[in-house]
Amino acid sequence: MASQLRLRSALALVTGAGSGIGRAVCERLACEGASVAACDLDAAAARETVRLLGSPESEEGAPGGKHAVFQADVSEARAVGRLLEQVQARFSRPPSVVVSCAGITRDEFLLHMSEEDWDRVVAVNLKGIFLVTQAAAQALVASGRHGSIINISSIIGKVGNLGQTNYAASKAGVIGLTQTVAKELGRHGIRCNSVLPGFIATPMTQKVPQKVIDKVTGMIPMGHMGSPEDVANVVAFLASEDSGYITGASVEVTGGLFM
């Protein structure tokens, strides 16, 4: 593993922190020394993540402990604004590391996809990242602090996938959003990068039929699905000063899968 405690002075806000990649990111950033504000729509899941970090805290945003639990629907502007206010009130500073992991799927072929399923996926996966990125950037610029914003996209946003027009569009949007934010915020000392996971063993991929998983695994040069920790390792690098001259990048974590 890379050198430890690269983030010992950092405060990291992680959305989608209750499971999968989000939980692994929280664990890795905490191991690097960061204080973690773990946010999820499911507060109980976020609380379990914080428990795994070694914090006894059990109440949302309560004082005490190095890490804290927050609950928010990232697709709601007021909720995101309130989240940033709560994080700053709890830690007396804005987060210098922001990792947007919250995401959902509602898969269906184009000919049968409902407008509701399209809207909900775009609202969480793209609008949610816009809202969190904007609110965090505003807080950082107002405080004069530098920071690193890391948005979790997907290789599907680059190459597409059957039955996922909504998901692919939302994740492609995250890549474009990230590249533009990097151009706008570089002069403020704020970096913004995206991570494009391939097929990672998470609760989301557990919904995929086994025959599909077997087919996709056969297309991965490394011969197996990735783990949430594989993604978290890249996030930790992008959060640290080891990547201090990297912004606007899209880092693929796919085992070589290009579909």
Automatic annotation (TrEMBL):
Keywords: Fatty acid biosynthesis, Fatty acid metabolism, Lipid biosynthesis, Lipid metabolism, Mitochondrion, NAD, Oxidoreductase, Phosphoprotein, Steroid biosynthesis. The keyword Lipid metabolism applies. The keyword rRNA processing does not apply. Pathway: Steroid biosynthesis; estrogen biosynthesis; Lipid metabolism; fatty acid biosynthesis; Lipid metabolism; mitochondrial fatty acid beta-oxidation. GO terms for biological process: androgen metabolic process; estrogen biosynthetic process; fatty acid biosynthetic process; protein heterotetramerization. It comes from the Eukaryota. It is an enzyme of class 1 (oxidoreductase). Gene3D superfamilies: NAD(P)-binding Rossmann-like Domain. Belongs to the short-chain dehydrogenases/reductases (SDR) family. Heterotetramer with CBR4; contains two molecules of HSD17B8 and CBR4. It catalyses: testosterone + NAD(+) = androst-4-ene-3,17-dione + NADH + H(+); a (3R)-3-hydroxyacyl-CoA + NAD(+) = a 3-oxoacyl-CoA + NADH + H(+); 17beta-hydroxy-5alpha-androstan-3-one + NAD(+) = 5alpha-androstan-3,17-dione + NADH + H(+); 17beta-estradiol + NAD(+) = estrone + NADH + H(+). This is (3R)-3-hydroxyacyl-CoA dehydrogenase. PANTHER family: (3R)-3-HYDROXYACYL-COA DEHYDROGENASE, SHORT-CHAIN DEHYDROGENASES/REDUCTASES FAMILY MEMBER. Residues 10-203 form the Ketoreductase domain.
